[in-house]
């Protein structure tokens, strides 16, 4: 009974939104003249981005079919598919693919669950809300290499890191994070950096839930769990979608944190695709193979993006 | 939008700024001796009027930046800090300007450079990089802990003795580890140590036909000895420890022994930084009675890329930074023990230095005993003690380093690490065309 | 949620929220404290919370080695310059996407975002070669240019979602009054969009400030930003934790302050205007 009512309320709200948007955009369709103008105004951004995309991409594609080593001028000429075969045949390729997905997925889960929790918490009537918000968003202002260095040396170092001291205080053997749990450690660091982003978006979504809606739900006697499930969560769907989309784009290319902390190891335990490209292309100075790796990375990113758009893209149409 | 004029103004300023008087851009590593050089370099500017633009970076970032720049002829730098690995390879490709001016300068006295170091930086008798400091590796150990363990360190110990001593000195309750060794993956990190160590076990990277040798008994012995030693007597988290981390551990009194670069000797005996400064002894790197010791040879050196527009001024600076006078200046300001070691014969003949640096004789002996042309027991097709002087080695060495680091972290067995190293190296050497 | 709660509930939530917030903030707090310790104290086996011998020597040592202000000014020019340049290009584009949408608008938006998918390490050499030939290596304007391109998709996205929120009626009214298109933008659209533009600016300044691959690889002595500054203090020889903390604090301080003072704006900005 309550459930259906809550559900109906959310549904009606969603329908209203769609209807109003429809009115706004479609009924007042722009004239032909404005359309031409619109295209002109869009042109600089599109052209600039097109050049920015196509020039490096074409060069990378070209290099990926060449024998091209920075430090070995003897390696020249057309390579055929050899670079691709080499990169995909890398012993760590499968693992880096899995690691990439684990990294993206792990950080997404932590930031969205944690962000929702934090958003709900910060939305409560509490003392010092302003300061709390500042504390919670500050990790976002820390540049990735600094974040990695702080965590590596100040926090996770088994000898003199804060966590090591904490473990010792409780009489435990300090954990050697980057060797025992390398990928997990990287996920923790990256999640720490992105948690503020998720929290803020979700918090604002939460605060935009109108007072009437909440009160209506409360008067219906819906308990906290049902309110969350049938009112709050659907309301936040679009915000969550944006968190997922934007973060995924950034997380697929995570690199600085890995380089500073684990160097992709031990073994290949924390190597992701971006780091694999770095290792073959830059560390080994093998531009041909590195470029092939870059192309492979773009293809993987696109597959992930298409999958994501299928899964959550509908939330964007509002 | 109000910021736009400001922004344009700043850009103009930046453009004007870049076109001013003669300025050298110097890329260097953030090691203690280089930072000291940076600090003292204002004297050079006063003397010559040449401005210096320092780019001081962490080692891996520096390597990546200078390699990218020199290989693409980018021309960002006038002086690069490179090692004995890069110098001959780059020189052969015509990327470096020969330092003929130094060779011709009697006051500079190029013949005073240690022959082993000079040889490593020359191609066809021409010097392409001037050594800023040189190093081999040896054992640094705590005399007090050795005594407590009831042992005496010989001048030239065996691996067997090292194993015994390390286990005897270990006192984990008091956070004392018998031995600290490099474990952090990298061709210049754990592989420098392990390759040098493997030489004393008679192992080699490649046979005469460039076939990788990780499936050999010698490599198995090397890795097994290393892993069991670290398991019994090494510090926690050893697979993240490189030179710098181990230095910190040793200075904090947490290592009984440490086998690493000779250049560390002045750091561990410096009472300002080290809590154990007066309790450090030195010995040659261990062996197995096969005629080779596990010590390496390296020199951080200054070179001029062929793309530099300021080659003359650059050579002037290199002359200043690697001269006898520079050593004397450092000695005057910081004491003889802190001068950059391992480059000049005259330094080791200097009684002041001998008195101030108890490690001087041992350092010189170690440098002189490393032979890049015959690094190990069996013949090899390559040059280099702790590295293989081929362009592909940086990538291959780091790859293998990752695997051995994983073995040290307990993420894979020694046998797996060796098997995977063999496969990966074979794959890369085939790609590079060494294996037909 | 409910605004009428008992004091005890409020106390409970306050305590919980503070505990969590301090936990999240602790790595930064620890860095701040460590920056004022001596090197020996920073890695002592018996850790101290507050510096026992409060010292500023780390900051002195950092400044001696690396000119902080030069790097900071470069960071400011690059992050603000690239964002402003990006806004100039993106505002018209976002305007037309929001007010004259076509079937392809969404595709174009997704395509723009997809230009960020190529891993930077994969295109280093092409970009390096282009920069070399255009003489852009180690220049502030070169860095500004590349940062503009990197953040342009995000800027367009943010502005687009903001502009979509602006009621079309107002524009229609202006048009009826016979306002020219340009006037429409300058006098009607811009004032309404200023909060959105401001938060877009803020967020992208932060993103540009934090970028740490191109800023390190494409610069050497002159154009280095604070990320290059930090790289010089990452794992050097000897004790370094306190100096590293001091350098880290210096590197993040300006953006942290900017962020703190403008966090209300930022909250709006981060939502991409998507959530009303």
TrEMBL record, chain B:
| One of the Pfam families matching this protein, by short name | SBP_bac_1
Query: What keyword terms does UniProt attach to this protein?
Result: Periplasm, Signal
Give the SUPFAM superfamilies listed for this entry: Periplasmic binding protein-like II
Classify the main location: periplasm
List the subcellular locations: Periplasm
Signal peptide from the UniProt entry: 1-21
Please give the InterPro entries that the UniProt record associates with this protein: Bact_solute-bd_prot1 (IPR050490), SBP (IPR006059)
Q: Name one GO cellular component term.
A: periplasmic space
Give yes or no: UniProt keyword Glycoprotein. no
Q: Which family does it belong to?
A: Belongs to the bacterial solute-binding protein 1 family.
The name on file for this protein is Sugar ABC transporter substrate-binding protein
Which species is the source of this protein?
Answer: Devosia riboflavina
TrEMBL record, chain C:
UniProt entry keywords in alphabetical sequence: Cell membrane, Membrane, Transmembrane, Transmembrane helix, Transport
Gene3D superfamilies for the chain: MetI-like
Pfam families listed in its UniProt record: BPD_transp_1
Q: Which residues form the ABC transmembrane type-1 domain?
A: 72-262
Q: State the annotated membrane topology for this chain.
A: Multi-pass membrane protein
| GO terms, biological process | transmembrane transport
Report the main location listed first in the record: membrane
Highest taxon above the source species: Bacteria
Localization annotation: Cell membrane
Q: Which Gene Ontology cellular component terms are annotated?
A: plasma membrane
User: What InterPro entries does the entry give?
Assistant: BP-dep_ABC_trans_perm, MetI-like, MetI-like_sf
Name the residues that span the membrane: 12-33, 72-96, 108-131, 143-163, 184-206, 240-261
Q: Which family does it belong to?
A: Belongs to the binding-protein-dependent transport system permease family.
Tell me what this protein is called: Mannitol ABC transporter permease
């Amino acid at each position: 009974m309550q459930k259906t009512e809550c559900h109906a309320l959310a549904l009606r709200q969603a329908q209203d939104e769609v209807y109003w948007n429809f009115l706004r955009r479609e009924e007042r369709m722009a004239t032909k003249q404005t359309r031409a103008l619109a295209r002109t105004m869009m042109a600089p951004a599109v052209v600039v981005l097109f050049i920015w995309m196509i020039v490096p991409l074409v060069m990378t594609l070209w290099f990926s079919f060449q024998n091209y080593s920075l430090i070995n001028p003897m390696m020249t000429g057309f390579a055929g598919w050899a670079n691709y075969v080499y990169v995909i045949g890398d012993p760590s390729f499968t693992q880096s693919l899995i690691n990439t997905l684990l990294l993206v997925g792990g950080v997404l889960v932590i930031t969205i669950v944690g962000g929702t929790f934090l958003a709900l918490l910060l939305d409560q009537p509490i003392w010092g809300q302003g300061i709390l918000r500042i504390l919670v968003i500050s990790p976002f202002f820390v540049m990735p290499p600094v974040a990695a260095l702080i965590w590596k040396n100040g926090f996770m170092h088994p000898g003199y890191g804060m966590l090591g001291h904490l473990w010792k205080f409780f009489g435990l053997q300090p954990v050697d994070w980057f060797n025992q749990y390398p990928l997990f450690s990287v996920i923790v660091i990256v999640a720490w950096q992105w948690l503020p982003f998720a929290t803020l978006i979700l918090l604002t979504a939460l605060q935009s839930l109108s007072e009437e809606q909440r009160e209506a739900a409360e008067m219906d006697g819906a308990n906290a769990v049902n309110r969350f499930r049938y009112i709050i969560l659907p309301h936040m769907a679009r915000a969550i979608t944006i968190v997922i989309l934007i973060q995924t784009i950034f997380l697929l290319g995570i690199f600085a944190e890995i380089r500073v902390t684990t160097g992709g190891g031990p073994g290949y335990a924390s190597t992701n695709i971006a780091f694999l490209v770095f290792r073959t292309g830059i560390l080994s100075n093998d531009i041909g193979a590195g470029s092939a790796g870059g192309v492979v990375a773009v293809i993987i990113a696109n597959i992930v993006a298409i999958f994501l758009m299928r899964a959550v893209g509908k939330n964007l149409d509002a | 939008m109000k910021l736009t004029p400001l922004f344009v103004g700043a850009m103009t300023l930046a453009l004007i700024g870049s076109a001013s008087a003669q300025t050298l851009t110097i890329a260097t590593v953030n090691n203690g001796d280089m930072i000291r050089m940076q600090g003292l370099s204002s004297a050079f500017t006063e003397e010559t009027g040449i401005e210096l633009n320092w780019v001081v970076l962490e080692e891996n970032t520096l390597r990546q930046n200078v390699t990218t720049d020199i290989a693409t002829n980018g021309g960002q730098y006038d002086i690069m800090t490179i090692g004995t690995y890069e110098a001959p390879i780059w020189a052969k490709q015509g990327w470096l300007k020969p330092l003929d001016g130094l060779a011709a300068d009697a006051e500079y006295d190029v013949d005073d450079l240690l022959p082993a170091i000079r040889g490593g930086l020359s191609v066809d008798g021409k010097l392409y990089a001037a050594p800023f400091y040189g190093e081999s590796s040896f054992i640094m150990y705590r005399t007090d802990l050795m005594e407590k363990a009831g042992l005496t360190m010989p001048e030239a110990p065996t691996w067997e003795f090292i194993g015994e001593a390390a286990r005897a000195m270990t006192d984990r309750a008091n956070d004392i580890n018998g031995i600290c060794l490099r474990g952090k993956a990298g061709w210049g990190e754990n592989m420098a140590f392990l390759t040098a160590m493997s030489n004393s076990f008679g192992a080699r990277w490649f046979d005469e036909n460039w076939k990788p040798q990780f499936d050999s008994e010698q490599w198995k012995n090397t890795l097994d000895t290393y892993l069991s030693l670290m398991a019994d007597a090494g510090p926690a988290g050893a697979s993240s420890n490189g030179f710098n981390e181990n230095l910190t551990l040793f200075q904090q009194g947490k290592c009984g022994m440490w086998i690493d670069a000779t250049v560390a000797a002045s750091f561990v005996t410096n009472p300002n930084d080290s809590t154990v400064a007066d309790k450090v002894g030195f010995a040659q790197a261990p062996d197995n009675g096969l005629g080779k010791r596990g010590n390496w040879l390296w020199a951080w050196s200054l070179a001029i890329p062929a793309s530099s527009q300021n080659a003359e001024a650059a050579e002037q600076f290199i002359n200043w930074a690697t001269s006898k006078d520079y050593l004397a200046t450092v000695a005057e300001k910081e004491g003889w023990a802190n001068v950059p070691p391992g480059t000049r014969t005259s330094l080791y003949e200097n009684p002041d230095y001998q008195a101030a640096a108890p490690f001087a004789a041992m350092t010189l002996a170690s440098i002189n005993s490393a032979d890049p042309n015959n690094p190990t027991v069996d013949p090899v097709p390559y040059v280099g003690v702790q590295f293989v002087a081929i362009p592909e080695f940086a990538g291959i060495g780091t790859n293998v380093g990752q695997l051995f680091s994983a073995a040290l972290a307990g993420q894979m067995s020694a046998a797996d690490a060796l098997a995977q190293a063999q496969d990966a190296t074979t794959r890369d050497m085939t790609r590079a065309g060494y294996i037909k | 949620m409910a605004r009428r709660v008992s004091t005890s509930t409020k106390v409970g939530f306050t305590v919980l929220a503070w505990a969590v917030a301090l936990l999240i903030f602790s790595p930064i707090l620890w860095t701040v404290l460590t920056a004022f310790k001596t090197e020996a104290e920073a890695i002592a086996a018996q850790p101290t919370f507050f510096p026992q011998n409060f010292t500023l020597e780390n900051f002195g040592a950092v400044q001696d080695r690396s000119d902080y202000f030069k790097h900071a000014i470069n960071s400011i020019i690059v992050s603000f310059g690239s964002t402003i340049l990006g806004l100039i290009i993106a505002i018209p584009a976002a305007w037309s996407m929001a007010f004259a949408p076509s079937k392809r608008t969404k595709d174009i938006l997704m395509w723009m975002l997809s230009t960020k998918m190529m891993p930077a390490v994969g295109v280093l050499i092409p970009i390096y070669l282009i920069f070399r030939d255009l003489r852009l290596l180690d220049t502030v304007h070169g860095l500004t240019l590349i940062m503009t391109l990197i953040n342009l998709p995000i800027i367009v996205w943010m502005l687009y979602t903001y502009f979509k929120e602006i009621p079309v009626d107002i524009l229609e009214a202006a048009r009826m009054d016979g306002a020219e298109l340009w006037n429409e933008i300058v006098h009607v659209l811009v004032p309404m969009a200023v909060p959105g533009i401001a938060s877009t600016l803020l967020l992208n300044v932060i993103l540009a400030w934090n970028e740490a691959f191109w800023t390190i690889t494409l610069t050497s002595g002159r154009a280095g930003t604070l990320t290059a500054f930090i790289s010089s203090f990452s794992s050097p020889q000897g004790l370094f934790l306190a100096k590293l903390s001091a350098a880290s604090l210096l590197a993040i301080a300006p953006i942290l302050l900017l962020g703190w003072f403008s966090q209300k704006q930022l909250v709006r900005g981060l939502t991409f205007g998507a959530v009303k």
